[in-house]
Structures are given as C-alpha cells and as structure tokens.
Amino acid sequence: MQGEGPPLIFVPGLDGTGLLFYRQVRLLSHRYRVITYRLRDEAPDMATLVADISRHLDRTVPDGSPVVMVGESFGGALAMTFALAHPERVRELVILNSFARITPQIKLHLAIGGLHLVPWRTMQLVRRLTAWRLQSPHTHRDDIQRFLMLTSSTTRIGYLNRLRILTQYDLRERLPELKVPTLYLAADQDHLIPSVSQATFMSARAPQARMRLLRGYGHGCFLAPDMDLNQLLQEWADTRS
Fold this sequence. Notes:
The protein is α/β, with parallel strands linked by helices. The radius of gyration is 17 Å and the shape is globular. The chain has helices at residues 22-28, 46-60, 74-85, 106-117, 123-134, 141-150, 156-167, 195-203, 229-240; strands spanning 7-11, 33-35, 67-72, 90-96, 182-187, 209-214. Helix 3 links the parallel strand 3 (67-72) and strand 4 (90-96).
C-alpha cells in the first residue's frame, strides 16, 4: 500500500505482478491509498482469484469501504468478474485493454501448447524480442528494461493456469449485470488483443459504462511516459458530474 485517501487496487495482467504499475502508483498515491498485489500462480480458476482479492481487501481495507478497481488485460477480466460477484465492494471500475471473451479460442490453445514446448529459460529472450509490440511506441527504453526485469520472475505454471482460466472465461451475456460505474480504456495500437472493438462491445452493454480511446498507445499503456491515470479518473469524474 502507498498513499492516503480512498482505496484503489490494481489487478495485474497475465504476468501476474502488481509491480508493473509503479508509474501510476506514484501519480495516484497523493490522492488514493493505492494497493498492489501479485496473482497466485497456483490458482486453478477465476473463482479462486476472486476469493484472493476478497482476502486482500479484508486485510488492506478492513472497514469494508468500496474501492476503485483498476484491471489491465487479464486483470480487467478478473476485475469485472469480481465486480459481478461482489458489487458492494467496488465503487468504480477502470478496465484497460481487456475483453469479454478471447476469440477465436484456438489462440489460447496454441499459446498453452507453445508454453509446454518452449524451454522456459528462453522466455526472457522472447519477452525482449516482443516488448516493442507490447508497449507503446514512445515508451522509454529504461521502462522497457524495467518491464523485462519485473516480469523475469513470472513462472510457467502461472502463465499456463491463467491461460487455462481464459478458456473458460466468457462475460458477454453478463455485461448488463455490471452495475458499477465503469470506464473502458482502449489503446488504438494494441497489437495483442483487439482492445478498441472489445471496449466498444463491453461499454455498449454495461449500464453505467463509458469508453475512452487512447490514441498512440500500445497494450502496455501504463508504462508510457505521458500516461496519467489520475488525470483520466478526474476527467471521467467531471463528465459524470
């Protein structure tokens, strides 16, 4: 935890580490009590990860105050699932470059098969070679190096379990039940998932949702030097008021 104010929790993406939110934590901690955590690698299903968030919140927000929940990619899927299960614990949702369902599913099965076959010691090289496609075009070299360092501890079992979870994940029919105010952020240069079309689909179905297009950004928006989630939250609040 860092900072003072109403609680805000970051839900990690497929890499599983909350350390990747370091830029945004610094910008938000003067206004929020910011909570980050690591996904449990051994979690076999989304329900287990939802229960883990509940335990984190029981410890870090003991008075039960509803939180601002920010989820990135896989973390966005988990955050929406949590909000559907525990709407009383979520004040606002911010979902970055996420999805209601991964289609076609063959992508996930190929990724799972590939992770079984590729020697794990080569994954850092794969990350290094693909980082330019994952991050925004103007992300600084130092931040890309820090991304590689912070994700180096990600385990094969963590990746595999989270990919398997996504084969069972589908919120398309449940989006009308998502009653909490939700801001969908979508990068127009996301080469990993079709963020813009997914955000358009989700924001049209969630009752209190808005969508904001992030022009010139890639999948890993939060590491870009000019990305300020605090400003985006303030502008969203202004439009709602």
